[in-house]
Design a protein that fits this description.
CATH class of the largest domain: Alpha Beta
Strand content: 15-25%
Oligomer: single chain
CATH topology of the largest domain: Rossmann fold
Distance between the termini: 34 Å
CATH superfamily of the largest domain: NAD(P)-binding Rossmann-like Domain
Number of helices: 10
CATH architecture of the largest domain: 3-Layer(aba) Sandwich
């Protein structure tokens, strides 16, 4: 006779209506995994800019979601159930996972992170070593997924996949915004693919970016940053760039005009935003700003011969990148110390009630990932 399955009670932090604050803590259904899925008891979740922007902007992003909504992409915890056909994971395993429930093809609140239990496809889950805390592990998933899409997708930079024993390609890559969550992961992945990384950040984060593998760090606010980067790249071949943050795309373009570049391509990891955000007509004014920037950028690219594309971090769930990164590369790289959790977590408290404060403070985070333990 099989053992009776234990009864589990789930709770979630809900976005109850457009722009509603604070997130509402309420009961949520516990969901068992289907074939190829696992259910995780979350022990730490991390907050990303997209969580804050969704709450602040109403239906400007993810307009297909029905309220109440469960936000959240980053989690780490313990496996409690595995679905049919899952052999790589078992109950009790310590894992991190990329919760993709808000993406349109999934559109499933059971697969979002801001709750006690989350269902995940096994292809978006990694084993984590005993020495890695849940808080640090939760800082990885979305940042790594976004970086990986920009680096490896065929219509992006299309680099070779990373390896724990990478061979140098002899080429360089620009990562503009290296101390961001996406940047910290992009530096490590690019190095693991055999590329020398030239990055930008504030001077206080030079040490962080170099520890992650960057060869040269430059102050993004320096008036000579473009010429300084071009000087370092003299005699080398540039394989393209990834731009994170306002001004990064234009700077990458400018550098590419001054150096040997075998792939004039910029992977765009962030969307142009108004700063400060408009207090009235948010959607209309943000849309107009986005269109205006795109027109200017398109004209600039036509003149310079540079190509680009915005990254959609969730797209790796529908190609072989998810399994390759989460299933094959990351567990071994974390175990061997070839990959580290970055940026550092800033724990905002324990319990779903602490998520709202973490969301509020996310915008001011600098080389930190806002994390809540559960």
């Amino acid at each position: 006779m099989s053992a009776e399955k234990p009864t589990r009670t789930n709770k979630a932090a809900y976005l109850a209506a457009p722009k509603a604050k604070p997130l509402k803590i309420d009961d949520a259904p516990y969901t068992s995994p289907k074939a190829g899925e696992i259910t995780v008891r979350n022990r730490a979740i991390a907050v990303n800019p997209v969580d804050r922007i969704k709450q602040e902007s109403g239906n400007f992003l993810y307009g297909w979601l029905k309220y109440p909504i469960i936000l959240g992409f980053d989690l780490a915890g313990e496996v409690v159930e595995v679905g049919k056909g899952v052999t790589a994971f078992k109950p009790g395993d310590r894992v991190l996972g990329f919760a993709n429930g808000m993406d349109k093809p999934r559109n499933n609140p059971a697969e979002s992170a801001f709750q006690l239990y989350t269902v995940l496809p096994e292809t978006l889950v990694s084993h984590i070593p005993d020495g890695l805390s849940f808080e640090s592990a939760a800082a990885i998933p979305l940042g790594m997924a976004t970086a990986a899409c920009g680096l490896y997708e065929k219509d992006q930079l299309a680099l070779p996949y990373p390896s724990v024993s990478a061979k140098a390609t002899g080429k360089a890559l620009i990562i503009w915004g290296g101390s961001t969550s996406v940047g910290c992961n992009a530096i490590q992945l690019a190095v693991a693919s055999g590329y020398e990384v030239i990055t930008t950040c504030s001077p206080r984060n030079f040490e962080l970016c170099k520890r992650l593998g960057a060869s040269h760090c430059f102050d993004y606010s320096s008036p000579t940053v473009v010429s300084d980067m071009a000087a370092v790249l003299k005699g080398q071949t540039l394989a393209g760039g990834m731009a994170i943050g306002d001004g990064g795309a234009e700077a990458c373009n400018a550098v590419m005009q001054q150096v040997k570049c075998d792939n004039k391509f910029v992977a765009l990891a962030s969307y142009p935003t108004l700063n400060p955000p408009p207090q009235t007509l948010f959607v209309l004014r943000s849309a107009l700003h986005f269109v205006s920037w795109n027109v200017k950028w398109w004209i600039s690219c036509r003149r310079s011969g540079v190509r680009s594309k915005f990254i959609w971090g969730s797209s790796m769930a529908y190609n072989d990148i998810g399994k390759t990164l989460f299933g094959n590369f990351l567990p071994m790289a974390l175990e061997n110390g070839k990959y580290v959790a970055a940026p550092e977590p800033q724990v905002m408290g324990h319990g779903l009630e602490c998520i709202q404060e973490a969301v509020e403070l996310q915008k001011s985070a600098r080389a930190r990932k806002m994390v809540v333990t559960l």
